[in-house]
Predict the structure of Spore coat protein.
Amino acid sequence: MSSKQLSHSDHVIATDMLYESKAAIKDFASAITESTSAEIRSFLKQEIRNAILQHELIYGFLQDKGIYDAYNVPQQLQRDIDYATRALSD
């Protein structure tokens, strides 16, 4: 990965993509439990696998860029505060 910093817009887009992929995973899981068709469940199971892979790729990108680290909560909270402070001052 390149070490180039993301612009404010790119940061927002990538973070939104992470949250939306997580929401998609939850929605697919819910849909699987509601479906009565084996064919639809099979389709949804493949889609949830794809959504999980997409989430993994987006998280890896954000982690490589130093934007998101779920394993160090205090440091992540400080990053979020710093980012919000920068965003509000722009």
About this structure: The two ends are 27 Å apart (CA to CA). The chain has a mean pLDDT of 89. The CA atoms of residues 10 and 16 lie 10 Å apart.
